[in-house]
């Protein structure tokens, strides 16, 4: 047995997946909301019998190693090592790629950099200035430890010397980690200098990059700089605070989304711990997917200006039809609307706690924002408001909710609801036209994918076979029929070698089966249409009827093939004696098959 199979045999996929996705028992398997696409009704199934998962919505499927690679972003080697460690199996040899080795080396470099920056801030004399700066911002020592804050000294090569001279890492690797920059003359220097450092961690808690904040607010340089895109760091996937505050986010089932690291740190000190920061002002699909694993509500707390409004509109598109409620904290409702989360949390923690519980729907927020920018009492203001919020209201998926906000807008503009709807249709017409074309194309694609009647019968026969006693006898009956569904004949051949008596045990039946055939078996076993029939049918009776129908379909196929051969011969102007005999024989075969068809 290979070590890969040994690790898989020692692992329960239900346990591994269940630690990451909420699963509920459903018959002989477990189901939950798919972590790989947005859905409101669970179509994601995990089978402990087959030790595989499959989403009947998006088609994602695989074993426990595939799941960890897709869900946690592990490489194959990482997922194998992770599971082996869980199972207490010592791997003799793991086939690693050059990228696996590079990832490990970059992670080691970044971890050392985090420790270096943290040491300078907390223990070295060069960090005194930064310690004083954080004290002025009321950042506690507990927060410094929780978020592992650091300090990059104001020198050109402090980190570079530490990693190259003391830790013996190549300059090229340090550069690939995003920590140093190569100048025009070919000389390297530290990317972060004279800044408070925020380690940026992925959802697994590994440091993949950094953000640095200048101490001098009057400096001409950018206030914040971040790691560049690297093999490990991707801005679109980053949520500062996600790992540190994971338990609090999960407990609250909601996440407040802000723009700055200090917003998160100060907020946690004010006991508002369900908070994360994005890089920039735009929420991404990757971030929504990550949050969607543990929360039901995403609360935006962005600037109440045009940039904030645009970020909110984009967030609506990004969330789409995911099972996530999108809400907003409107900081502009405060008397001093210019304050950010960091300021409020530091100076008015009670106010921030109250504000964090006073949220608006995204649609209410955008309406209010539009009323502030345009006068709803003037014709020009009404026109601009419709232009701004019309497309947003038109995109609300639920008709009742959409009707509520349309009526609210009509009341504010003091016009009839029908007029508002007419204008919304006008401002969204190009988008609507474009949208209506897509489903038709998708439907036509679905038609081409629809399997034949025989293929459906074959799937049903396999489904019934797994429910019936006297498995070997039924299997032999099915083996007599020529099957067209790819993989079915290989499945039946595998089953016949098992020499099963009575009703089969699926786990032992699937043992030794190729992964693609396991997936095919999974697909049939947990076909939702077939499962719905399970409690209402008589399997024995259905088996006989399905077998008869399959035999008839096979006969019809043979007749069709013969008729095509006959048609080819009849096209000829003159037949040879041999062709004459061949035609007569084909006609006899058709007649015989037609008699057999009637007798079934």
Topology:
Blueprint: H1 3-9, H2 13-18, E1 24-26, E2 29-32, E3 44-47, E4 52-55, E5 61-62, H3 64-71, H4 76-87, H5 98-122, H6 128-136, H7 141-146, E6 150-152, H8 158-166, H9 171-176, E7 180-182, E8 188-190, E9 195-201, E10 207-214, E11 224-226, H10 246-252, E12 254-258, H11 261-269, E13 275-277, H12 285-292, E14 297-300, H13 306-319, E15 325-328, H14 341-347, H15 349-356, E16 360-361, H16 362-373, H17 379-394, H18 399-413, H19 417-449, H20 453-465, H21 471-479, H22 488-498, H23 506-510, H24 515-525, H25 528-533, H26 539-570, H27 577-599
Parallel strand pairs: 12-13, 12-14, 14-15
Antiparallel strand pairs: 1-2, 2-3, 3-4, 4-5, 6-9, 7-8, 9-10, 10-11, 15-16
Helix pairs in contact: 3-4, 11-14, 14-15, 16-17, 17-19, 18-19, 20-26, 21-22, 26-27
Name the features.
five-stranded antiparallel β-sheet; alpha+beta; 600 residues; globular; five-stranded mixed β-sheet; 27 helices
Can you describe what's shown?
This protein is an alpha+beta fold. It is built from 27 helices and 16 strands. A five-stranded antiparallel sheet has the order 1-2-3-4-5. The chain has a five-stranded mixed sheet with strand order 13-12-14-15-16. Strands 6-9-10-11 form a four-stranded antiparallel sheet, with helices on one face. It is globular, with a radius of gyration of 32 Å.
